[in-house]
């Protein structure tokens, strides 16, 4: 698997865990997944393969796969993945305890700093609002 596919696959796993934290993927969460897919240029074939395979797996296995894949990525890609998660967790203004645990533990095991994720998320938000 090439490095970009590793990043895309790891990101999809993490996003899935975050949006499925309550056991149900709402329409708005599905839309957010698709927006991330578009923003990161995740190939449709990879996205479909992921969706077909994910329903058969336990949450713990999905998490271990996600962390394994993300830990193979560059520091920039890791940061990017957790910025997506951070922004996604904040999107509905109702952060679930499991979302916090996923973010904090994932950040820890990937050797990132929470402050870096938070600052990068703010910068990304500012950049998104300043676009014409």
Description of the structure:
- The chain has a single domain, classed as TerB-like, CATH 1.10.3680.10.
- It is built from seven helices and no strands.
- It has helices at residues 3-19, 27-39, 44-54, 59-70, 75-90, 97-109, 114-130.
- The longest helix is centred in the N-terminal third of the chain and has 17 residues, at 3-19.
SSE layout and pairing:
Layout: H1 3-19, H2 27-39, H3 44-54, H4 59-70, H5 75-90, H6 97-109, H7 114-130
Keywords:
7 helices; mainly alpha; 132 residues; TerB-like; globular; 75% helix
Outline:
With 132 residues, this protein is mainly alpha-helical.
Strand content: under 5%
Overall 3D shape: globular
Please, what is the average pLDDT?
90
Distance between the termini: 36 Å
What is the CATH superfamily classification? TerB-like
CATH architecture: Orthogonal Bundle
Put simply, the count of helices is 7
Number of domains: 1
């Amino acid at each position: 698997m090439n490095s970009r596919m590793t990043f895309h696959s790891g990101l999809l796993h993490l996003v899935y865990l975050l949006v499925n934290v309550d056991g149900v993927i709402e329409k708005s969460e599905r839309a957010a997944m698709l927006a991330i897919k578009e923003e990161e240029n995740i190939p449709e074939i990879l996205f479909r393969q992921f969706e077909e395979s994910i329903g058969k797996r336990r949450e713990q296995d999905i998490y271990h796969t996600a962390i394994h894949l993300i830990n193979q990525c560059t520091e920039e890609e890791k940061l990017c993945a957790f910025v997506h998660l951070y922004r996604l967790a904040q999107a509905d203004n109702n952060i679930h305890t499991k979302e916090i645990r996923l973010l904090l533990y994932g950040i820890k095991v990937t050797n990132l700093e929470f402050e870096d994720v938070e600052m990068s998320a703010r910068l990304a938000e500012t950049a998104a609002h300043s676009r014409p």
